[in-house]
Structure formats: structure tokens, C-alpha cells
Amino acid sequence: MMKGNWRQSASIILAAPRPVPTPRFAAPETGQEPFGGVAVRKETAPQTTRQPPVSDLLAFVVQRSSKARFMPRAFVFPGGVIERAVDCDRFWADRQREVEGVSSDGAWKQRLEQVTSFPQPRPPIYDEYRHNDAVMPAEWALRVCAARELYEECGIVPVVDVKTGEAKVLSVAELDGGHGELALFQNAQTVARDNATAFVDLFRRSERYALNFTALVEWSNWLTPRLGVYNRRFDTIFFLLTVNDCPKHKLCDEELQGAQWTSPVNILREGYYGSAPVPPPQVYELSRLARFETCGELEEFAAARAARAGMVRYCPQMIFTSDAVRVTLFPGDDHYELGTKENPPEMIEERKLDMSADELRQQASLLHRAEFRSLDGQERGQTCPWTRWRIYAGSFKDGSDHIAPISEP
Question: How many domains does the chain have?
Fold first, then answer.
């Protein structure tokens, strides 16, 4: 298969139950209401007739800087490109062996084989980091990448207490005045932003805490489509991490201009009505999260799905119709081109058709697509192209045994 000109990356979907509000916190004038001291954004967009289930599930999203070269101002999940020298370091596997208490080399070899023995199908991203003599499985390296980016960007990191075995999430914003090893975590974030090796050095120095990357559950895989608007492409694997509460964040101001814990439907509505860009992968995944009423249901589903089914890489293909609709095709749709060996599906360029989105849809029997309609009925360029969408995925099955997204917020 032709090797693409994209970069591999990992992202983390952080989810938590909605905190119970307490009377001692008054609602500020900013339109945000603190639940137990955590700012949770209120719904600002009009209601629609199609309502997803009432949910206590919150997701953590960050907003990219307006100066970002790739998707400025967009609401996304924390993440970034893999750093081979750091994320593939054998230290992580050695420390994990210590945490799990595996002394036998034979038993540890079986453990590593178990890590890579996931159900089929498997996305190509793992092959980039898989070597016969590797002591750090690709499945672990990409999880380390996602956890590292969460720490660098937001000051949040999942750890396990080596002495007690307790899993927890450390928040730099909540470690003010910390001493000993907690001070290490507080001080290393700024350094790690400019030098990723500081992240692995942090855990080398920590005797009490180990990185809890195995808590991250495989969720989905997206490849940036081939678009004339953006020449930067990323093959990104998304992991899910559920936590008991909403840790506070300390942002990297150079990359991000904001972050919030919010309901999936709420952030979807902000994108739907044009308040801020929400790219298609986030639209799709947030629409999946909106199916769950509780964080516990999400956690249970994700673990069971990852154990019984594989994962398919989604590389959207774009069609611009005569009525100014951006039709985003996903694998399995009748109009999704399978390509050839010389020109595989991920290399298919965007197309323009002299027909409406409705006419195009009526020609297909299997639908797996999203239709984005601009607010004013015209092409909006790069300002906010992803608005007023509807997702068609009800009857589609791709082998990943995943949950279908809601059609619209």
C-alpha cells in the first residue's frame, strides 16, 4: 500500500460524570455555571426537535489557538504527534512490568504478546511502530503519546500509585504548593512543552507514581482527508479515559486558547450553529458520546467493545454539491471510493458534483455520511465550514461493532 504523507498522532477523549451542584457556588455572569468548583458551559444554542437522552456525561474539549496553523479556533480533543524517542522508550514497558509484578521473562513475553493480540481488523497506524524485536508494543507507545500530550497541553495525567496500586489523575492546577514528587509534576509541565523528553524523565525520577497508560481504551482512528484547504494530514488514534470527577486544567497558552468540561450535545450545538468550529471527527465522536446517559455506561461499552471487536480507520472523502453542501463520506457508504493499489481510498481527492445533496443521497442504498450545510447557504471557506450537519449512519456496520452517532444535536 502507498505510504501517505501524513504524521501519526494520538488523542484522548476524557469523560467524567457531571458533578452534583452545590448551593455555595453562585453562577457567574460569564454564562458558565460551576458544578462543585468546575466550570461547565451552559447550553447557548436553540433546542432542536430531535433530543438525545438526558445525560450526566461530560467530555473535556480544548479550543485551538486562533494562530494555529491547523484548524485555528477549532474545538478538539487533546492530543498531538508521536515522539518516537519518548513514547517508544523501553522505560515505559520496564516500569509497567514492575507495576504488574511480573518477574519471569517468559511470563512477560506472554504479556506483551497479549497486548498486541487484539481482534481484527487493525488500523495501519500500529504497523508504523511495530518491530519484531521491540520491547515497547505499538499499542502502548500510542497510549503514552496521548497521555503525554494531555499533560503537556492541559496539565492532567493519569497515574497509578506504585505502592498502593491506586489509579488516580494528577492535575497540575490542583498541585499548588505541592512538595516532593508532586512538585516534580507541577514543575515539569512547562519544560515538557518544549522538550518532550522531560516527560519520560519525570517518571524516571518518580518513585511513587507510574504512568497509567493502560487505562486508556482504544476508541477510534481518523485520517485527515485529502483537501486543498489543508495540506497537513494526521493519522490519529483516539483513546477513551473515564475518570470519577472533572480535574482542573492548566493550559499551554501557545497552542490553546481555552478548554471546558461540557456535555457532548452542548459542544455539538456550538458547532452546529456556528459559534466555533467543530471538525468532522469531533462531530462524529461527540455524537457517539451523546448516545450514553451515564459515564458508567460509556466506560462499560468501551471496554467490552475493545475486547470483542477491532477498529477501522476512517479517512473521509469530500464531495461538494451544487447546493453548497459539504458531503463527508465515510467507509461503507455507497459513494465512498475504494480506489486502487496505486491510488488507495485515503489518496482520493475532494470532488465537486453538479447535483444536490438530496439527489446524491437518493442514489445510495447504504449511507455512511455527514452533510454539512453552511449557515447562509453559501461556501464559507475556512471560517466555519462545519455547521448544520446531519449524520446518516443508522444501518452501517464496519466490523468495529461501534455505536452509531446521533444524527444531529
Answer: 1
Whether residue 124 lies inside any domain: the answer is yes
Whether 405 is covered by a domain: the verdict is no
Phi-psi region of 388 (alpha: psi -120 to 50; beta: other; left: phi over 0): left
Q: How far apart are CA 311 and CA 346, in angstroms?
A: 16
DSSP H stretches of helix in 6-158: 84-87, 90-100, 105-116, 138-154
222 part of a folded domain: yes
For the chain, the average pLDDT equals 86
Burial 358-388 (b: 16+ CB within 10 A, else e): eebbeeeeebbbbbbbbeeeeebeeebbbbb
SS3 content of the chain, % helix, strand, coil (to 5): 30, 25, 50
- A 10 A CB-CB count for 8 gives 22
CATH number at residue 143: 3.90.79.10
| Residue with the three cell numbers 477491532 | 310
Which residue range(s) make up the domain with 224? 10-19+33-314
Give one DSSP letter per residue of 245-309, joined into a string.
S-------TTTEEEEEEE-HHHHHHHHHTTSS---HHHHHHHHHHTT-SSHHHHHHHHHHHHHH-
Each residue's pLDDT tens digit, 91-113: 999 999 999 999 999 999 999 98
Is 399 part of any domain? no
- pLDDT tens figures, 58-91: 999 999 888 877 778 889 999 999 999 999 999 9
Report DSSP letters for 48-79, one per residue: -SS-PPP--EEEEEEEE-TT-SSSTT-EE-SE
Cα distance between residue 122 and residue 284, in whole Å: 20
Taking the model in full, what pTM does it have? 0.89
**Helix or strand holding residue 372 (H, E):** strand 369-373
- Whether the bond between 121 and the residue before it is cis, its omega within 30 degrees of 0, is yes
- In one-letter notation, the amino acid at residue 233 is R
Predicted pLDDT at 341: 86
Q: How far apart are CA 391 and CA 372, in angstroms?
A: 9
Sign of CA dihedral 173, 12, 89, 304: positive
C-alpha cell at 45: 444554542
Sole residue written with cell 459539504? 326
- Please, what's the b/e burial string for 55-81 (b: 16 or more CB within 10 A of its CB; e: otherwise)? bebbbbbbbbbeebeebebbbbbbbbb
